[in-house]
Amino acid sequence: MIEDLTAHVMARGDLAHLALFLWAATATLIGLVLIRELAISNQRFSDFVSEVARLNRYLAELGTL
Predict the structure, then answer these.
(1) Could you tell me the CA-to-CA distances from 17 to 13, 44, 48, 60 in Å, in that order?
(2) Lowest-pLDDT range, 1-10, 23-32, 49-58?
(3) pTM of the model
(4) What residues form the membrane-spanning segments (predicted)?
(5) What is the 3-state secondary structure (H, E, C) of the chain?
C-alpha cells in the first residue's frame, strides 16, 4: 500500500518536473528567437536611417549647385 502511494507520488513529481522543464525550455527558446528578431529589425531600421541620411546629403548638394 505505502509502496504504491510512494510510486504514485514519485511518478506525479517526475511528471511535474518534466512539465516545468519543458515550459522553461520553451519560454527560453521563444525569448532567444524574439531577441534575434529584434536585433535583425534594429539593423534594418539602422540601414533605413542611413539611407535617409544619404538621400538628405544628396539633396542638400543638389540645392547648393
Answers:
(1) 6, 41, 46, 64
(2) 1-10
(3) 0.64
(4) 15-35
(5) CHHHHHHHHHHHHHHHHHHHHHHHHHHHHHHHHHHHHHHHHHHHHHHHHHHHHHHHHHHHHHHHC
